[in-house]
C-alpha cells in the first residue's frame, strides 16, 4: 500500500463485496490525516438487511473517525473540509441513487458542481464507487438510467483522480499504473 502524500483524490471502484470499502478505509488510515467518513446511505429502520450493512461498515471504522451522513450535498461537504482532513465518501452509487429523480438539467448542474469542487478542494478525498455496468443491460428504464449515470460519474471522477484502483475478488489493481486514461467526457 502507498501512503497518501499532499492533497490526493482517489477513486476505489469494484463490484459488490469485492473489498473496495476495506481498501479505501486502509488508504484513509494511511493518510495520517483526520478521517471523516461521508456516508451517502440513508438509514431505513424498516429495512433490517440495509441497516445491517450500514452497521457492518460502521463496526470496521476506527472510533477516532468522524461519520457525517451526506446523502445529497457532497460538493458542499467537500468544499467546507479543511486541508487536514481526509474524506472517505462511501459510496458514489448510493449518492447517484439518492439523486436519480433529478431531471437531466438538475443532474448536470449537481455533477458539474461536484467535479469542480473535487478538482479545487484542499483536502484528500477517497471515493468508493460500485461497478454496475459489467452485466446485462437492465430491462427497465430506471435501472438503465442508474447504471448510465453511475458509469459517467465514475468515469469523470476517475479522470480527475490522482489514483484509481479496481478491487475485485479481494485483489487490488492500481489502474493508474496499469491503464491508460481516456478523456473525462461521457456520452
From TrEMBL:
Any one GO molecular-function label of the UniProt entry: cobinamide phosphate guanylyltransferase activity
Q: Which NCBIfam families match?
A: PRK05800.1 (NF004469)
- The EC designation for this entry is 2.7.1.156, 2.7.7.62
**Gene Ontology BP annotations:** cobalamin biosynthetic process
Protein species of origin: [Phormidium ambiguum] IAM M-71
| Protein name in UniProt | Adenosylcobinamide kinase
The active site annotation covers 57
Q: Which CDD domains match?
A: CobU (cd00544)
Q: Which InterPro entries would you find in this protein's record?
A: CobU/CobP, P-loop_NTPase
Protein keywords: ATP-binding, Cobalamin biosynthesis, GTP-binding, Kinase, Nucleotide-binding, Nucleotidyltransferase, Transferase
Q: Does the keyword Transmembrane helix apply?
A: no
SUPFAM superfamilies xrefs: P-loop containing nucleoside triphosphate hydrolases
Outline what the protein does. Catalyzes ATP-dependent phosphorylation of adenosylcobinamide and addition of GMP to adenosylcobinamide phosphate.
Q: Does the keyword Oxidoreductase apply?
A: no
Enzyme class, first EC level, given as a word: transferase
Q: Which family does it belong to?
A: Belongs to the CobU/CobP family.
Q: Where does GTP bind?
A: 14-21, 39-41, 69, 90
Reactions this protein catalyses:
adenosylcob(III)inamide + ATP = adenosylcob(III)inamide phosphate + ADP + H(+); adenosylcob(III)inamide phosphate + GTP + H(+) = adenosylcob(III)inamide-GDP + diphosphate; adenosylcob(III)inamide + GTP = adenosylcob(III)inamide phosphate + GDP + H(+)
The pathway it acts in is: Cofactor biosynthesis; adenosylcobalamin biosynthesis; adenosylcobalamin from cob(II)yrinate a,c-diamide: step 5/7; Cofactor biosynthesis; adenosylcobalamin biosynthesis; adenosylcobalamin from cob(II)yrinate a,c-diamide: step 6/7
Amino acid at each position: 500500500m502507498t501512503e497518501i502524500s499532499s492533497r490526493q483524490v482517489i477513486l476505489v471502484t469494484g463490484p459488490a463485496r469485492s473489498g473496495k470499502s476495506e481498501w479505501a478505509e486502509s488508504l484513509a488510515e494511511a493518510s495520517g490525516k483526520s478521517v471523516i467518513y461521508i456516508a451517502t446511505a440513508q438509514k431505513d429502520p424498516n429495512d433490517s438487511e440495509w441497516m445491517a450493512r450500514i452497521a457492518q461498515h460502521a463496526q470496521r471504522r476506527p472510533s477516532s473517525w468522524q461519520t457525517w451522513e451526506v446523502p445529497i450535498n457532497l460538493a458542499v461537504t467537500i468544499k467546507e473540509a479543511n486541508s487536514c482532513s481526509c474524506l472517505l465518501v462511501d459510496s458514489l452509487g448510493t449518492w447517484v441513487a439518492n439523486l436519480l429523480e433529478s431531471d437531466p438539467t438538475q443532474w448536470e448542474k449537481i455533477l458539474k458542481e461536484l467535479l469542480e469542487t473535487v478538482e479545487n478542494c484542499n483536502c484528500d478525498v477517497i471515493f468508493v464507487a460500485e461497478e454496475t455496468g459489467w452485466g446485462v443491460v437492465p430491462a427497465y428504464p430506471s435501472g438503465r438510467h442508474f447504471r448510465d449515470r453511475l458509469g459517467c460519474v465514475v468515469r469523470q471522477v476517475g479522470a480527475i483522480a490522482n489514483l484509481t484502483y479496481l478491487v475485485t475478488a479481494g485483489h487490488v489493481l492500481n489502474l493508474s499504473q496499469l491503464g491508460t486514461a481516456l478523456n473525462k467526457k461521457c456520452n
